[in-house]
């Protein structure tokens, strides 16, 4: 395999990128100036050193000495609500809308309908531990914030079965974002008004 082909394989693994687009990216790299290529390579290789994964919600934040991010650390946030999302991008969209004051949990992806292996890559075990811990002292609402499409719905079912034992207790309740989100829409691309109505109309 040539270096070009290897690069195409890497780009193909990026979210939402198919093989044709991956090739276009690789050709684009060929047209870049050497300094830009070097800077890009350096940025990629140093990225994990410049961010920290929050020990509580698992989102990435700019490195400080802290192990907990500013959202999880904020005492003004409502710790009775835990919004489970697929990725960091979803949190950014919701924070931009300014309508949610609870806490988050980043699952790290979705469970596609046709694949079983992805469950292992997700933070299901960590989610269970977080839910259990947070519900010790008070009631907890776990809000599932996944895209309104088959994969998003499948992921919601996966979380429901994961937390099935817990929801027998009165203290833990699971809700879903309302259908203010139109079918097929992804949270990360939704505007503030849509997110507001999806949160308000949760079921
Ligand atoms: Zn956090």
Please, could you describe this protein's structure?
The chain folds into 2 domains: 3-49, Helicase, Ruva Protein, domain 3 (Orthogonal Bundle); 74-200, Dna Topoisomerase Vi A Subunit, Chain: A, domain 2 (3-Layer(aba) Sandwich), CATH 3.40.1360. The model has no long low-confidence stretch (mean pLDDT 88). 46% of the residues lie in helices and 15% in strands. The protein has 203 residues and is an alpha/beta fold. Helix 8 (150-162) links the parallel strand 5 (140-145) and strand 6 (172-176). It has helices spanning 3-12, 19-31, 34-50, 70-73, 88-97, 118-121, 124-137, 150-162, 192-200; strands at 51-53, 60-62, 78-85, 102-106, 140-145, 172-176. The strands form 2 sheets. It has a 4-stranded parallel beta sheet. The site of zinc ion has 8 residues, from helix 4.
How far is it from the N-terminal to the C-terminal residue, by CA?
Answer: 51 Å
CATH fold label of the largest domain: Dna Topoisomerase Vi A Subunit, Chain: A, domain 2
**CA radius of gyration:** 19 Å
Please tell me the overall pLDDT: 88
Strand content: 5-15%
Topology of this protein?
Layout: H1 3-12, H2 19-31, H3 34-50, E1 51-53, E2 60-62, H4 70-73, E3 78-85, H5 88-97, E4 102-106, H6 118-121, H7 124-137, E5 140-145, H8 150-162, E6 172-176, H9 192-200
Parallel strand pairs: 3-4, 3-5, 5-6
Antiparallel strand pairs: 1-2
Helix pairs in contact: 1-2, 5-9
């Amino acid at each position: 395999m040539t270096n070009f082909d290897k690069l195409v394989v890497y780009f193909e693994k990026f979210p939402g990128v198919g093989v044709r687009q991956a090739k276009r990216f690789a050709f684009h790299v060929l047209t870049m100036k050497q300094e830009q290529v070097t800077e890009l390579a350096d940025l990629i290789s140093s990225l994990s050193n410049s961010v920290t994964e929050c020990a509580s919600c698992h989102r990435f934040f700019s490195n400080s000495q802290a192990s907990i991010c500013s959202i999880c650390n904020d005492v003004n946030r409502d710790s009775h609500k835990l919004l489970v999302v697929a990725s960091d991008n979803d949190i950014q969209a919701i924070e931009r809308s300014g309508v949610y004051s609870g806490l988050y949990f980043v699952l790290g992806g979705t469970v596609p309908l046709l694949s079983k292996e992805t469950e292992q890559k997700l933070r299901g075990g960590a989610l269970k531990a977080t839910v259990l811990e947070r519900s010790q002292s008070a009631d907890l609402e776990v809000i599932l914030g996944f895209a309104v499409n088959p994969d998003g719905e499948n992921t919601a079912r996966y979380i429901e079965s994961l937390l099935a034992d817990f929801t027998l207790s009165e203290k833990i309740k699971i809700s879903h974002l309302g259908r203010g989100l139109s079918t097929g829409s992804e949270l990360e691309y939704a505007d503030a008004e849509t997110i507001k109505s999806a949160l308000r109309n949760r079921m």
